[in-house]
Amino acid sequence: MAFRRGRREREAVAQPFPDAWRARLAVRWATWSALDATERATVEDLTKRFLARVRFEPSQGFAVTDEMRVLVAAQASYLVMGMDDPTLDLYSRLTSVILHPRTVVVRGTHSVGRHLETDSPQALAGQAHHRGPVVLAWSTVAYEARHPERGQNVVLHEFAHQLDMFDGMIDGTPPIADRELRERWVRVCTAEYRRVRRGDESVLRGYAATDTGEFFAVATETFFSVPERLEEASPELYDVLREVFGQDPAARARRRTD
Ligand SMILES: [Zn+2]
What is the pTM of this model? Predict the structure, then answer.
């Protein structure tokens, strides 16, 4: 549907990716240096497109810089770069990204609908809304981009929810065109979800047991952050994620340490 894309977006994609942005990604985002030249070029193209399309809104009094926008956009782009989605259609329902300086503390219960999800009852690092914004705490975004070894990444988590919500349902299943792969996905994820619900030992943190939507979001951030650990502990889950995302981050990590 390229003909529907705005002129602004086409012009942005035609511009070179600023060296200054590249330099900041190298400092801010541990994964950047693991990408090969082709992967970097893809992330750069998608990042330009993302920034031309998605509005960033600061929370009150917070100054959102280019560096912040680029770090969020690059990771959201990285998430889908292997999914055969060259024009970021998978994020077409996203309205904006709202950045807070740090986690937002909320009081009382966090009883929220399935279209509004939160990751901790007290300090929210991120939220994803159906046909609405992604809300992120910059302090968490910055820390986790530098420390994938912790196994968590709020940007990948919240944008995984965006993929999940693409079809209007939060059910832990992103768009998967191939029927056989979709069936395998459901079978493997259902078995793994049951294991975490039972409290069996898992690389996935306990939050994955909340519901199938959180299972997918946690599995996604684990897959990209600590891929070798996930591959060793849950090879079937790793394998189906590898096919759905069209990326093999464990192989990339091994290539890096060879
Ligand atoms: Zn979540």
Answer: 0.91
